[in-house]
Amino acid sequence: MCTHRNNERLIKEFLRAAHITQNKDLGHFVAPEVKCWGFPEFNPGNCDEYQGFFNYLADVFESQVFTIQQLLAANSQVLVRFRIQGKHHEEFMGLPASGGELEFTATALFRLDEGKISEVWKYNKHIVLHTPKGYSYTIGAATSSISRKTVQAIAC
User: Fold this and answer.
1) Crossing angle of the two packed helices 3-19 and 47-60, in degrees rounded to 10
2) What is the distance between the alpha carbons of residues 135 and 147, in angstroms, rounded to a whole number?
3) How many Å apart are CA 92 and CA 97, to the nearest integer?
4) Cα dihedral 129/67/75/49 (nearest 10)
5) What is the tens place of the pLDDT at every residue in 104-150?
C-alpha cells in the first residue's frame, strides 16, 4: 500500500479514536514528544497533553458529532478539514458555556515520522454558537459578529 494511503488510514483511525472512543489511548498514533501550534486554549507538547486536549474537547462539546470534511495525504503529511458540533458545555475560545449549539471547524496539518504524529498545526479556526436565547456568535480568522435571530410565532 502507498505511503500516502497508509498515512490517510492512520489519521482517520486516530481521529476516530480521539473524537469518538470513550477510552482514548492515543499513544499508538502519537509520538511521545509531539509539537503543536495554533490549538484553541493551549498547545500540547507531549502525548499525554495531546490526549488531555481531546478530553477537554469532549467536555466542551456534549453529545459531540465529529466529521471530516476533506482529507488530503502525502508522503509525510496529512491535511484535514473537520467539523465538531455539540451542546456547548464548557468555556471554549473565550465563550463561556451557554448550553447552546456550538460548531467548530478548522484545518489541521499532521506531520508523520515513522508512522506516528510528530507535529500538528491548526489554522482557519471558525466557531458558530447558537445560544438558547436566540443569539448567534460567529468567530473566525476574518470575521467576528453577533446577531439576534428573528423568531416568528405561529398562531394556532
Assistant:
1) 50
2) 6
3) 7
4) 60
5) 999 999 999 999 999 999 999 999 999 888 888 888 864 444 444 43
- CA separation for the pair 57, 88 (Å, rounded): 10
First to last CA, the chain: 62
β 61-73/135-140 pair status = unpaired
Name, in order, each residue with C-beta under 8 angstroms of 75's C-beta and a sequence gap of 6 or more: 3, 4, 7
Residue 156 has pLDDT above 70, yes or no: no
Q: Which residue has the cell 489541521?
A: 108
Contact 127, 140 (CB under 8 A): yes
Q: State if pTM tops 0.90.
A: no
CA distance 43 to 40: 8
- Residue 10's H or E segment, with its range, is helix 3-19
